[in-house]
Amino acid sequence: MDPLDRLEATIRARRGADPATSYVASLTAAGRAKIAQKLGEEAVETVIAACSGDDASIVPEAADLIFHLIVLLADAGLSLDDVRAELARREGVSGHDEKAARTIEGKA
Ligand SMILES: N=c1c2ncn([C@@H]3O[C@H](COP(=O)(O)OP(=O)(O)OP(=O)(O)O)[C@@H](O)[C@H]3O)c2ncn1[C@@H]1O[C@H](COP(=O)(O)O)[C@@H](O)[C@H]1O
């Protein structure tokens, strides 16, 4: 199994565990706003790493970011498969073309 799928399965399994022994459970118990806050913090830490001049330092921050994103998806009853499906839907559509279509449709 892909490590991300394995991590997702672990996160789902740990959501209902004892918060004293599980970070996933304690974060889940803290609620959606706390999960979102942690995700934001990890995003900022990834940005800081991106600008630090030490590209290798992006990797652990990206791992923290993805971990917390999966915790959020699980909390919302969503999965990596939902994200995969959305990315597959976008496949082959240039971001520039998609944005231009939005403007034409008056959705910008
Ligand atoms: N991949 C991860 C993972 N990545 C990051 N983290 C935790 O995410 C937390 C966030 O980092 P911070 O430094 O911001 O934490 P903090 O400062 O203690 O948090 P705050 O007090 O500020 O809220 C840390 O406690 C990290 O250990 C993770 N915790 C768990 N996992 C995976 O999830 C599995 C289940 O974990 P438990 O639920 O703890 O059993 C583990 O076996 C791992 O595979």
UniProtKB/TrEMBL annotation:
Query: Which Gene Ontology terms describe the biological processes this protein takes part in?
Result: L-histidine biosynthetic process
| Source taxon at top rank | Bacteria
Q: Name one GO molecular function term.
A: phosphoribosyl-ATP diphosphatase activity
Task: Spell out the protein name for this chain.
Answer: Phosphoribosyl-ATP pyrophosphatase
The record ties this protein, via InterPro entries, to: HisE, PRib-ATP_PPHydrolase-like
Q: Which Pfam families match?
A: PRA-PH
Q: Reaction(s) catalyzed by this protein?
A: 1-(5-phospho-beta-D-ribosyl)-ATP + H2O = 1-(5-phospho-beta-D-ribosyl)-5'-AMP + diphosphate + H(+)
What species does this protein belong to? Sphingomonas oligophenolica
Keyword Isomerase recorded: no
Localization terms from the record? Cytoplasm
- What EC class is this? hydrolase
Keywords tagged on the record: Amino-acid biosynthesis, ATP-binding, Cytoplasm, Histidine biosynthesis, Hydrolase, Nucleotide-binding
A GO cellular component term found in this entry reads: cytoplasm
**What family does the Swiss-Prot or TrEMBL record give for this protein?**
Belongs to the PRA-PH family.
